[in-house]
Amino acid sequence: MTKNSKAYEEEKAKIMADPNLTKEQKQKWLERNSQVRYKDEFYQKLEKLEKKYYGPVYAELQERRRSILNQHRDDMTGNIDIDHMSANSKAAIQRLSR
Description:
0% strand
């Protein structure tokens, strides 16, 4: 749940109950106003798989990469804001991505 999930659910209920909107319009609203967010459990499972298949060093590098990217993630959209990312952060991501 996010800080705006109650307001979202209320608005969603209104939109879905509106008889003046078509099924397509309701679907478009859902697509524009929803986003997929991965839970911590997903990242824990991913880390286990990375360790199993690629070794602990690779898993540690991926965790560092995620940690840097999360510092620059927009809370509202979930997107990475590379425009405001420092040169050091960008360089670290490049090194870790090789």
